[in-house]
Each structure stands twice: as structure tokens, then as C-alpha cells.
Design goal:
It is a single chain. The chain is mostly helical and 373 residues long. The chain folds into 2 domains: 236 residues, no CATH class; 72 residues, no CATH class. It is built from 16 helices and no strands. The longest helix is centred in the C-terminal third of the chain and has 32 residues. The termini are far apart.
């Protein structure tokens, strides 16, 4: 009688792993949201569009929330790295060398291109020291808008390691909850101060203290998973509760930032939904592995940093070429023209970001193991 094979042991893959590839897919969703926002909404005159096309382009506004998804992901990943680094030596040195190798090369190239193409040096100078989200305070125009979120993240990198290093897991959890609760209040106060001066610029919401709750939502998720190790069932239930809470608050996202309530609450529902989305991706990736991988989204996730930095340069360059007559202006349906522009600029930006990742960023990334093992 032939021997029967032993039953396969059902080994549950942990939610937290060294490589969580599903988060590259989430990052890919975030960068595509931003691309659609700048491609179909930002700076677009909707008055020439038929009703259906106008609705689509106006709905593309939601793509700007891709930045909030980036914040949640960054809060989760960076907090996790820092919690793990607490167990090893060279905590600060290792973190800052690795972060510098990751963000500085492509950022320096972006600033160089901006300088060569005539961007005011006051803005370049502020961006060089990661103050591009505070240009309003210095009376300087925001000449390249995407850099504001890089400044927020850099301030997070400067302060959060100190907080994580000094606090226990429970204390860190309390800090994250406090930031999530206080950030809407900070936006409300900032709005009221600006309103009393007679004019409210949307740039006040780019201040780091007004953008901290997305990062804190991600940090909260990281601390909870690592310090308290909930079961899958508990994790799933909490995620459902978080998403349900975000959906319940969704009406607040419809309020304009030109009012105090909208200013305070507009992004709150989405931060909760994105935290739930990140957690759901972790559950799916750890349970089904390669079966749920989306390689095309992972591709965009892998090049997302460079694509975020460069894509608006491509859109702006295209518009300048059209205005100078180098690229002929086609007398076609406006939305069709917008779609053609999106395909061309999105394709060129994706190609540049891929080359940047392979030939600029990765050589520096490979230095991580040598300079900060």
C-alpha cells in the first residue's frame, strides 16, 4: 500500500513582514490619484466641457487625496522602522543616513531643474531647507506645489524619531491618538486666524501641524500592530470600525475648505478610510500572498517618489510648448484634448521616473547596506 503524504501544515503568515509588497500597490494607487488630479482637475477651465465630462473632471479633485494616502503609508512604514530600530544600535545614524539616501538624490535633481527653468530663487532656497510648505509665511509664491508634502514628511522625519525613541508603546499610542484628535482643531484655529486677516489661502492647510493627522493615523496602525499584536479577527473588526467611522464622517468631506468646518474636517474621513485600506491590504497580502499582487500597481508604487516629484514638471513643460506653438494646438473636443495631454504627459513622466529610479535612486539605495547596515 502506497504511503500517504503527510497533511500540509497550515502556517499563518504574519501580517507584519520584512517585505510587504502589497503596500507598493497601495502606493501605486496614491500616485495615480495625484496624476489624475493634476491631469484632469488642477488648473482646468471646466466651463467649456459638456455636463458629463465636467462632472468627471470635477470629480478628479478627489485625486489630491492621494497625498493623504501617502501620509498614512509613510506614518505606518516610518513608525514601524523606528520601532524595530529601537532594538538595535545606531538608532539615529542609521535612520537619517537611510532616509537621506532615499530622498535627497531625486529631490536635488528636481530643485536643479526648477532653478535652471527660471523658478524664483527665494522659493528654491526655502525648498532647499524643506520650508516649501511655509512659503506663505515668508511672502513667497509656491512656485512648484508638489514640494509642500515633501516638506511635511521631512519635518516628520526630523521630529518623530525622537518621540518614538523616548516613549513606550502605550505612550506612543496615546500621542498618535492625540495628534489625530487635535489636528482638526489646529486647522480650525489656523482658519479663524487667517479669516480675521481678511483672506484665507489654501496654503495654510499645508503647514506641518495641519497635516499631521494622516501621518499619525499610519503611526497608530504601526504601533498597535507591533506593540499589542491583535488577532486577525480583532484586527479585521477594528478596521471595519475605522472605515465605518470614516464613512460616517464623509459628509464633512463635502464641506469647502473656505469654511471653518470644511477646513477642520475635510480630510478626516479620508485619513480613516486610508488607514483602514492600508490595514486591509496587509491582511490580504499576508493571507493570499502572490494571488492578490497587482504587478502594474507595484510598478507605479516603486517609481512613485520620482513620479510624484517630476510629473508636474512634465505637465507644465507641455503647456509651455503648446503656448509657444512648438506643439500645435488641436481644435478638437476639449476633454479629448485633455485626455491626449494626460496620456502623453503621464507616459513621459512615467518613463522619466523609471529611469530615475533605476539609474539615479537605486545606486544610492544600494549604499544603505554599506553606510548604515
Amino acid at each position: 500500500m502506497a504511503a500517504t503524504a503527510p497533511p500540509e501544515v497550515n502556517r499563518e503568515i504574519p501580517v507584519l513582514r520584512a517585505h510587504m509588497q502589497e503596500l507598493d500597490s497601495v502606493r501605486g494607487v496614491a500616485i495615480l490619484m495625484v496624476l489624475f488630479y493634476h491631469g484632469f482637475h488642477w488648473g482646468i477651465d471646466f466651463s467649456r466641457f459638456p455636463p458629463i465630462e465636467k462632472i468627471f473632471s470635477q470629480a478628479a479633485w478627489a485625486g489630491r487625496l492621494g497625498v493623504n494616502l501617502f501620509f498614512v503609508l509613510s506614518g505606518f512604514l516610518i513608525t514601524g522602522l523606528l520601532l524595530k530600530a529601537k532594538e538595535t544600535g545606531k538608532y539615529y545614524r542609521k535612520f537619517y543616513i537611510r532616509r537621506g539616501l532615499r530622498i535627497l538624490p531625486a529631490y536635488a535633481v528636481t530643485l536643479l531643474v526648477l532653478a535652471v527653468t527660471g523658478t524664483p530663487m527665494k522659493f528654491i532656497g526655502l525648498s532647499l531647507v524643506y520650508l516649501s510648505n511655509f512659503t506663505l509665511l515668508f511672502g513667497v509664491a509656491s512656485a512648484y506645489p508638489v514640494l509642500w508634502s515633501l516638506a511635511v514628511e521631512e519635518h516628520f522625519y526630523l521630529l518623530w524619531p525622537i518621540v518614538v525613541r523616548r516613549l513606550t508603546g502605550r505612550s506612543l499610542l496615546a500621542v498618535c491618538v492625540g495628534i489625530v484628535l487635535l489636528s482638526p482643531l489646529m486647522r480650525w484655529i489656523t482658519f479663524e486666524i487667517a479669516a480675521r486677516q481678511g483672506w484665507v489661502s489654501y496654503q495654510i492647510f499645508n503647514y506641518s501641524w495641519n497635516s499631521a493627522d494622516g501621518l499619525a493615523c499610519g503611526g497608530l496602525l504601526a504601533v498597535w500592530l507591533r506593540e499589542f499584536a491583535p488577532s486577525r479577527r480583532t484586527f479585521s473588526k477594528v478596521l471595519l470600525g475605522v472605515v465605518a467611522g470614516g464613512m460616517a464622517l464623509l459628509p464633512f468631506s463635502l464641506f469647502s475648505k473656505h469654511g471653518a468646518v470644511g477646513a477642520a474636517m475635510q480630510v478626516v474621513p479620508w485619513n480613516l478610510v486610508f488607514a483602514g485600506m492600508t490595514g486591509a491590504a496587509l491582511l490580504a497580502g499576508s493571507r493570499w500572498g502572490d494571488r492578490v499582487r497587482q504587478r502594474w500597481l507595484e510598478f507605479f508604487g516603486e517609481i512613485s517618489y520620482g513620479l510624484y516629484l517630476y510629473h508636474l514638471l512634465v505637465f507644465q513643460g507641455f503647456e509651455q510648448l503648446v503656448n509657444k506653438g512648438i506643439i500645435p494646438r488641436l481644435h478638437i473636443d476639449p476633454f479629448l484634448g485633455l485626455s491626449i495631454r494626460f496620456v502623453i504627459c503621464g507616459g513621459v513622466a512615467t518613463g522619466i521616473a523609471y529611469l530615475s529610479r533605476r539609474y539615479l535612486e537605486e545606486p544610492f539605495l544600494r549604499l544603505k547596506t554599506r553606510l548604515a547596515p
